Amino acid sequence: MDFSKLYRPSALNSFQFIALTGLLMSAGAHLILYFFVGRIPAGFNWLYVCWTVFYILGTLINYFGKPNDGHHHHHH
Question: Which end of the chain is more exposed for a tag (fewer CB within 10 A), N or C?
Fold first, then answer.
């Protein structure tokens, strides 16, 4: 298995990329809410669960999907 598909930016598919971006943005929002607002909304931590599931799905597609499926759009 090519484990670089888990972390190398050029090997990630769009699902993985969106999930990682979402995780980073959620973590940033978490810090801002914690330090500047003083409270975290109820259920906020579910964001991390959702992004993680999204990343796992993306990883499965990356490993087991058809090669180049959905990455190249050919117009004839």
Answer: C
How far is Cα 71 from Cα 28, in angstroms, rounded to an integer?
30
- Please tell me the pTM assigned to this model: 0.76
Locus of tokens 């980073």: 24
Calculate the alpha carbon distances from 60 to 24, 31, 37, 52, 54 in Å: 21, 30, 37, 12, 10
Per-residue pLDDT of the chain (76 residues; tens, 9 = 90+): 788 888 787 888 999 999 999 999 999 999 999 999 999 999 999 999 999 999 999 999 998 987 654 554 444 4
Cβ–Cβ < 8 Å for 53, 46? no
Q: Which helix (H) or strand (E) holds 5?
A: none
∠ CA 56-62-66, rounded to 5°? 140
